[in-house]
Amino acid sequence: MTESVLYGGSSTARVRVHHLQQAKERGERWAMLTAYDTYAAAVFEEAGIPVMLVGDSAGNVVLGHTSTVPVTVEDMLLLTKAVTRSTSRSLIVADLPFGSYESGPQQAFDTAVRMMKEGGAQAVKLEGGVRVAPQIELLVSSGIPVMAHIGFTPQSEHALGGFRVQGRGAGAEQLLADAHAAQDAGAFAVVLEMVPAGIAGQVTKELAIPTIGIGAGADCDAQVLVWPDMAGLNGGRVPKFVKKYADLRGELLRAAQEYATEVRDGSFPGREHSFD
Ligand SMILES: Nc1nc(=O)c2c([nH]1)NC[C@@H]1CN(c3ccc(C(=O)N[C@@H](CCC(=O)O)C(=O)O)cc3)CN21
Ligand SMILES: CC(C)C(=O)C(=O)O
Ligand SMILES: [Mg+2]
C-alpha cells in the first residue's frame, strides 16, 4: 500500500479507518499526533500524518491546567473546530473529556454527536475498555467511529494513584480484558498508554484492530505523541516516552527576544514595513 492510500484524498472516515486496518494487515506502521489549532493541524496534514487527535491533553499544553480533569466539552469543541477548519485529508479524532461520557451510553452519544456536528470531528476517543464497552457499542451502532484508550488513562489519574505504568504483573489480565472489550464493542483502534513493551506487543498481536502506543514500546501498530512535547515547545518536564524532534521553545524565545530588542533599539519597523 502506498502512502497516498493510507493518507487518501477526499474519502469518508469509514474509508480512512479501513486504510488503517489494511496498514495493520500489511505490517505498515503510522504516526498520530495531537493537534489543537489550525496552523499546527495544517502542518501535520502536509507532513502526511494520517490521524490527528484533538486531545484533552490541551488541558495541560494549551489551557494551563495541571491535568485533563478540568477540560470541558466547550473547550474541546473550540479546539476541534480550529483543527477541522484547516484539514481535509487527515482523520480527525476528538477526545471526549472527563465527565462527558462515563455515566452511560446516552451521555456518551450526546457528547459525541456534538463533537461531530459542531466540531466537525470524524471520530471520537474515550478512556476505558470493559467499563465503557456499552458506550462504545451505542456510538458505533449509531455511525460514530470510536477509538478507545487503555492502560494509563490520564482522566483517572486520581483513581490510578498518579502517573504509573499499567499492565505490569496481575494488571496484564485487566489490560488484555480492556483491549478485547474495546475491540468487541466495535472500536476501530485502541491507544495503549504507558504499558510495558512486551504486553503492548502481545495486545497488538491478539487484536485485529490497530494499537497506537504512547510509552508502550515499538511493537504497536502506530505511535502517538503530544505535539508540543515532541516539538520541544513544552518548557516543563516531559514524560520518559517523549522524543524531542525540535526545539520550538528555543526558537520562539529567540524570535521574541530579537523582536523586543529591535523595537527597543528602533531597528524595527524598517522602511519596508512602513507605508509612505
Ligand atoms: N504534555 C503532555 N504530554 C502527555 O503525553 C500527556 C499530557 N500532557 N497530558 C495528558 C496525558 C497525561 N500523560 C502523562 C503525564 C505524565 C506522565 C509522567 O509523568 N510520566 C513519568 C512517570 C512514569 C512512572 O513513574 O512510571 C515518566 O517519566 O514518564 C506520563 C503521562 C500523557 N498525556
Ligand atoms: C496522549 C493522547 C493519547 C491523549 O489522549 C491526549 O493527548 O489527550
Ligand atoms: Mg486524552
TrEMBL record:
Main location: cytoplasm
Pathway assigned in UniProt: Cofactor biosynthesis; (R)-pantothenate biosynthesis; (R)-pantoate from 3-methyl-2-oxobutanoate: step 1/2
Active site, UniProt feature: 193
UniProt keyword Metal-binding, yes or no: yes
Pfam family, one: Pantoate_transf
CDD domains found in the cross-reference section: KPHMT-like
UniProt-annotated binding residues for Mg(2+): 56, 95, 127
Binding site for 3-methyl-2-oxobutanoate: 56-57, 95, 125
Domain of life: Bacteria
Key word Ribonucleoprotein present: no
EC code: 2.1.2.11
Cofactor: Mg(2+)
Cofactor comment text: Binds 1 Mg(2+) ion per subunit.
Gene3D superfamilies from the UniProt entry: Phosphoenolpyruvate-binding domains
Annotated catalysed reactions: (6R)-5,10-methylene-5,6,7,8-tetrahydrofolate + 3-methyl-2-oxobutanoate + H2O = 2-dehydropantoate + (6S)-5,6,7,8-tetrahydrofolate
MF annotations from Gene Ontology: 3-methyl-2-oxobutanoate hydroxymethyltransferase activity; magnesium ion binding
GO biological-process terms attached to the record: pantothenate biosynthetic process
Role this protein plays: Catalyzes the reversible reaction in which hydroxymethyl group from 5,10-methylenetetrahydrofolate is transferred onto alpha-ketoisovalerate to form ketopantoate.
Subunit structure: Homodecamer; pentamer of dimers.
Protein family according to the UniProt entry: Belongs to the PanB family.
Protein name: 3-methyl-2-oxobutanoate hydroxymethyltransferase
Classification lineage: Bacteria, Bacillati, Actinomycetota, Actinomycetes, Geodermatophilales
Name of the coding gene: panB
